[in-house]
Amino acid sequence: MARARGVVLGYRRGTNTQYPQHALVKLLLDDPRKAGLYVSGIAFYRDRYGNVYKGRVLRLHGRRGGVVVVKFNPPLPGQATGGVVEVVKAGGDG
């Protein structure tokens, strides 16, 4: 199973609206164009208290940056910005 690490950049937001359940995650890959392979994968974030937040990779954000949109339930806290996320690729083959 393919795994990748990523960094939480912040919430998806607009001019007047913020979506705390949607986090922008920059995947740390050798080739950022391969971020699309992780769409529909599962993301995990663990805070310093041991709480685990689970989310699903919804789509790419931007064209070539290696950034994806992840929907977490429950939403990530604001302190997660800059934290490390582990993303597991969907499918069994890897």
Q: Helical region count?
A: 0
Strand proportion: over 45%
Domains (count): 1
Based on secondary structure, the structural category is mainly beta
Reading off the top of the CATH hierarchy, the class is best stated as Mainly Beta
Mean pLDDT over all positions: 93
Would you tell me which CATH topology applies?
Answer: Thrombin, subunit H
Radius of gyration: 12 Å
Poorly predicted spans = none
> What is the fourth-level CATH superfamily?
translation elongation factor selb, chain A, domain 4
CATH architecture descriptor: Beta Barrel
Helix fraction?
under 10%
Please count the beta strands (DSSP E, at least 2 residues each). 6
Distance between the termini: 4 Å
Strand arrangement in the largest pleated sheet: 1-2-5-4-3-6
Order of helices and strands: EEEEEE
Biggest beta sheet attributes: 6 strands, antiparallel, barrel
What shape does the CA trace take?
A: globular
Question: Can you walk me through this structure?
Answer:
Belongs to the eukaryotic ribosomal protein eL33 family. There is one protein chain. By secondary structure, the protein is mostly beta strands. It has one domain (3-88): Thrombin, subunit H (Beta Barrel). It contains no helices and 6 strands. The protein has strands at residues 3-13, 18-27, 42-46, 52-61, 67-72, 84-88. Strands 1-2-5-4-3-6 form a 6-stranded antiparallel beta barrel. The mean pLDDT is 93.
